[in-house]
Amino acid sequence: MRYELYYWPEIQGRSEFVRLALEEAGADYVDVARRSGGMRSMLRLLNGSRVERPPFAPPFLRAGKLLIGQTANILFYLGGRHGLAPANEAGRLWTHQLQLTIADLVQEAHDTHHPIASSLYYEDQKKEAKRRAADFLENRVPKYLGYFEAVLARNGQGRHLVGRRLTYADLSLFQVVAGLRYAFPRAMERIEKKLPRVVSLHDRVAERPGIAAYLASKRRLPFSEQGIFRHYPELDP
Amino acid sequence: MRYELYYWPEIQGRSEFVRLALEEAGADYVDVARRSGGMRSMLRLLNGSRVERPPFAPPFLRAGKLLIGQTANILFYLGGRHGLAPANEAGRLWTHQLQLTIADLVQEAHDTHHPIASSLYYEDQKKEAKRRAADFLENRVPKYLGYFEAVLARNGQGRHLVGRRLTYADLSLFQVVAGLRYAFPRAMERIEKKLPRVVSLHDRVAERPGIAAYLASKRRLPFSEQGIFRHYPELDP
User: What are the phi and psi torsion angles at B12 (to 5°)?
Assistant: First the structure.
């Protein structure tokens, strides 16, 4: 089965978490909106009155007859199909729980540059962004990443978040660390000192053959100031 | 099996979505932190170094040997156990997708009064809250609730969000409407005019015997200015 992934064509955004899982799994997929005419297909599914179960927003994934929205939900589905989550119920729920906690962190990372409204430009909420980013870096990032550090420490040798094998939650934590480093290099240098296990997980994920090949390919879009993780030096003093 | 629900004892908060599902199911549960000594039990699970799979934050649910965190994840689990979601994979994923979209709306509702930082008082971010709430009521609530109106319209007779039976997503949409009415009565009066199906679903959920009995009981905490949905008149001009 060839998956169809739908997302805004020029940014990593939330689809990157899905893409990393598809790449690690070696799955056959097409990034629809990056193809000619693909945006039209995506908007038809988003707004079309004939779609029985319309997604609220990208990303969404077509998998045969299924049309699945919400990043964590897509990963829950893919995890079960491609060995990227444990097969037993307790392990599947725990992996999903970690993913939902990562999703909360991602939302907070987004809101550092858009604390007032997604509909406004960054420049129109820059003052508020400075206040929000300061709290995010002072309190929230250490709390979230400290939590994942503790989860790694409690899981045996600390090589993965869940059990003995890689899961989609590991891939997502890699992406969060990469994104936070891009957006807040100065703060992250400080924060990472207390996170040896998180940093090591990031590095090991980046070196996996499928992921390394993907990161070096044109399929990996660069981070930018259009995405979730944005580098505005004034927010990382 | 008696479930143990863990949440801050004085507010509905995110646990209310779990409580509604437990009440509708007629499940046996105890609200641990509302009992004498219960807060200590909760904090032990949150921060205890001996918990193998610690939750990041309340609410979490103990179900036999499982300790499940993240509201939508708990509902995913309960939905499968108590007939509050379809049994087939497509239906389970779709119900969960709707729940995750509701969770996004709930987070945005929270951020209307805390746009800068959860660690600061409302009074210290009131100016920003006014800007954020204005955008929320102008753009976000109509978009989210309009989406659920469309989902209801596309689902046959529009009596439920998914299929022909009540799911936990219906219960959660009820709670969101109730919360938004509490927080923003003036704006909601306006917005609801275009949402006949959403309003009707809210009313039918409130009249279900199990839910009606619960809402009339002391187990239902009142809305307040400590919770997610807060009524600050200046945010609802």
Answer: -65, -55
User: Is there a contact between A214 and A20 (Cβ–Cβ < 8 Å)?
Assistant: yes
Residue type present at position B89: E
What's the complex ipTM?
A: 0.97
Q: Measure the CA–CA gap between B13 and B24, rounded to whole angstroms.
A: 18
The number of C-beta contacts closer than 8 angstroms across A and B is: 111
Spell out the residues 6+ positions from residue A219 whose beta carbon is closer than 8 angstroms to its own.
Answer: A19, A23, A31
**pLDDT score recorded for residue A87:** 96
Instruction: Kindly tell me the sign of the dihedral angle through the C-alpha atoms of B205, B208, B213, B219.
Output: negative
DSSP A209-236: HHHHHHHTSTTSPPP-TTSSS---GGG-
Residue of chain B minimizing CA distance to A114: B115
CA distance A230 to A109: 9
Please give the pLDDT value at position B138. Answer: 98
Q: What does residue B224 show for φ and ψ, rounded to 5 degrees?
A: -160, 175
Interface mutation target, options B75, B93, B143, chain A, most CBs of A under 10 Å:
B93
Contact A22, A29 (CB under 8 A): yes
Residue A150 to residue B54, Cβ atoms within 8 A: yes
Structural domains for chain A: 89-208 (1.20.1050.10)
Dump pLDDT digits (tens) for B89-104. Answer: 999 999 999 999 999 9
Q: Are strands B60-63 and B3-6 parallel, antiparallel or unpaired?
A: antiparallel
Q: Is A121 on the interface with B (CB under 8 A)?
A: no
